[in-house]
Fold this protein.
Amino acid sequence: MALQIIKDLCTACGDCEPVCPTDSIKPFKGVYKIDAATCTECEGEFDAPQCLDACMEDDCIVPA
């Protein structure tokens, strides 16, 4: 399963991008986007998705 960023809630702060261990988060049209093909929700590397902890906006990053 993968996560997605809700573009209307994304402030494009970029805090999520450097914490992604699979480099699945990239800038996209003024905000950020998660590549569902490579997002692992940090399984096998961390106990929880790192982008969720980094994001300051509630409900900006949700299951895809």
User: Anything to note?
Assistant: The first strand starts at residue 3 and ends at 5.
